[in-house]
Write a structure and sequence with these properties.
Helix content is about 70%, strand content about 0%. With about 350 residues, it is mainly alpha-helical.
Amino acid sequence: MTLGPPEADGHEGSGSTAAPGPDLAPVTGPPGTRTFSIEGRAAPGLYVSGWFLGLFGALLIVLAFFGASGAAAVVFAAAGLIALVVAFSAACGYQLVARSSRPEAAYRGPAPLLLLGFVLALSTLVELGVGLTGVVDDRPTLMFLLAVLIPASVYLTAVHVFAVRGGALTWAGIARLRPGPAGRRVGDWLVGAAAGISLVLPVLIGSAVLTAILGTVPESSLPRLTGDVDGLAIAVGAVVIAPLGEEIFFRGFVYSAWRLDLGVVAAIRRSAILFAAVHVLNVVVSPQDPLASIGAQLLIQFLVIVPAGLLLAFMYERRGLAASLGAHMAYNGGLLLLAALAASSIQGT
């Protein structure tokens, strides 16, 4: 994948600071003048729909949490999520149209943050629907599997529809598999796996130091690993399904998009920060917890994941998706195994 020159289109670029492209002419006036104007836009209908439905969906979500209860809260939440899914779809579609005139070597797809918004909204909507069916009640293993399978499926769908079908990236470019015999890709996976395993101990030490300093321990969202079918299902979800979806999205899509616009170093840094920020959502907190404790748990989770994000982006840059996937799978597998061993040791004492 070659690094092409970015073509900015004002506020819509994913980091570029060049002069506005033909879709957005320079304007003068107070801040926001261009943001809320449809003059000269290639697809004003999509632009307006994205803004309107996004604000409407956010309002419904706020009402669901703070202005309603019971069935009304569920209805408001579902309606808000639907509005957000359509809003992010419209926004991504708009950027595909607006950026189509960029040079062929530049990134011409939707901004990573917009597509991430689509993924989070659609995943949450599907999880809400599944939860309402009651099929996951008192079944933590199934709940965990769906919690990794749904986002992974939405990650793949989003990348395929908006990046690949949209013409911004190709699956070959996302995979970045090195040419040559298949053994070379196996070697890349093994190199990545070795790097992922080597990161487990430093991360655990860093996590222990942070928990000692901040006086709190983030609760794990993983069910306890056992030696039966449930344990195997948990291992598959944590070591195979979750890494596959996240690597295709955060390295194959997010990193590639920012690499084209901003260069390698900025893409590694930004993709690692975004990767860690999203994983903050995995922290299990209680409304009864003090705000200071909640903040400390979120900070620990963020700081612990950043090194993993940096390593995964580096492996992807050097050896492609096979290496970053190997590192991610080995890292998750190492953490899961150590957690199971620790739990077994505690039960045996």
